[in-house]
Design a protein that fits this description.
Length: about 425
């Protein structure tokens, strides 16, 4: 992340003590993070720890206001956000029908949930590094509020809607309550949220320990652990492993996601050393890895290790620096991806029920594709609507802000010492 002393516009910034005028000893370096954009960023290093004061300088060497992107919150990554919303649409494709076209789209996008796990582990480790939480208990409570409470509410919503559909539309028996619904839900997509809560909660202490050791060595060990798990076959529970919404079904269904717990933390460990190497070459590597793991699905069906490796390729592509307005604009939709994930089955069930009852429509390539696109638009609109209010945005697993900390004393701005290049 840090490079040589910053030089821009024919002027160099002095590397002497207190160069920024606030009296703290240190050296200023350019913060070479393409995600933060212009103007160039300067970071003071005070001893072995980054100092609290971060400032911008324009090309004339004048000291200006702190850049808002260097707040304690994680900056937005446009391609990651774009990949998240694409993966959310991939989840919808798994639930809209079984026509040949939709089955192909769903099969080729099976890396969607492993990608969500990779990103969750990556940013969990970044929050550990920033000391956003006082400890494991505080983090576990925050993650439970963020993911498990929406899981319970949406479970109730789907339970009521399914019983209305069965009793009043299909004229069949209602769905009974089961204790396992508290862990697996009662809709096709809900099981992943408790899965994610457990993974993040139990990985947090490991992340706290790993950040103190040799980063690249620990990253390599975690990559090997993930490969070992991915190469293993999922546990076999006979016929009971295929009964939906049971604990055994969740273990079998989510086996391809387990390696991504280790790989996501490994990516966060290696990221500071690798970020300057991200570019066209790594973009090609990521695309090749995705292609190499997607094509075999056409011949062999689902292979857990390939799904997980495909998610790694997608993550490499997503971390490639971009400076494109269209990507940035579309990437803004990524913050609603969990909302789309949670509520899309409402629209799928309602549209299918109406189409079947009044139009006799079952499943075809055209109908399922139309249902996919319509559901994606309606789910995105519903998520945006829920996100408008602080009273409802928690329903779409909105990322909570880091706990507030005491404000640091303001330092008066003074001209920076600059010398001719």
């Amino acid at each position: 992340m840090l490079r040589e002393p910053f030089v821009s516009g024919g002027r160099a910034i002095s590397c002497g003590d207190g160069a920024m005028g606030h009296g703290l000893p240190g050296i200023y370096y350019r913060m070479a993070d393409p995600q933060l954009g212009e103007p160039h960023m300067l970071l003071q290093l005070a001893g072995m720890r980054a100092a609290a004061q971060t400032r911008d300088l324009d090309t004339s060497g004048r000291d200006v206001l702190p850049h808002p992107a260097l707040a304690r919150t994680e900056p937005r990554y446009a391609l990651i956000d774009l990949a998240r919303i694409v993966c959310a649409v991939g989840v919808i494709s798994a639930h809209v029908g079984n026509s040949p076209l939709i089955s192909t789209i769903s099969g080729y996008s099976h890396m969607r949930l492993p990608f969500f796990m990779l990103i969750a582990m990556f940013f969990m480790f970044r929050r550990v590094e920033r000391d956003d939480f006082a400890g494991w208990k505080e983090y576990a409570i925050a993650k439970t509020k963020q993911l498990y409470l929406p899981f319970l509410i949406w479970g109730v919503i789907y339970f009521v809607l399914k019983n209305i559909k069965n009793i009043y539309v299909l004229k069949t028996a209602g769905i009974p309550l089961r204790a396992e619904m508290l862990l697996n839900g009662n809709a096709a997509q809900l099981w992943f949220l408790p899965y994610l809560v457990v993974a993040c909660t139990f990985a947090y202490p490991a992340a706290c320990w790993l950040k103190r050791g040799h980063r690249l060595l620990n990253a390599g060990i975690l990559m090997l652990v993930g490969l070992g798990v991915a190469a293993c076959s999922p546990p076999h529970f006979s016929a009971t492993g295929h009964v939906p919404y049971t604990i055994r079904w969740t273990i079998v269904h989510g086996w391809s996601i387990v390696p991504c717990v280790a790989w996501g933390i490994a990516a966060a460990l290696a990221y500071p050393s690798m970020r300057q190497k991200l570019g066209r070459k790594t973009l090609i590597v990521g695309l090749v890895l995705i292609t190499a793991t997607v094509i075999p699905f056409h011949f062999f069906g689902r292979v857990p290790i390939l799904e997980a490796l495909g998610a790694v390729g997608l993550m490499i592509v997503a971390f490639t620096p971009v400076n494109n307005r269209i990507v940035t604009m579309l990437g803004k939709l990524g913050r609603y991806s969990f909302g789309v994930y949670l509520c899309h089955m409402v629209f799928v069930n309602v549209i299918r029920c109406v189409a079947s009852k009044y139009f006799g429509q079952s499943s075809s390539n055209l109908f399922d594709l139309t249902l996919l696109l319509t559901t994606a638009v309606l789910s995105l609109a519903a998520s945006m609507l829920l996100a408008r209010s602080t009273r409802t945005r928690w329903l779409i697993a909105w990322e909570p802000a880091a706990p507030k900390r005491s404000a640091e004393p303001q330092v008066a701005r003074q001209p920076a010492l600059a010398i001719a290049a």
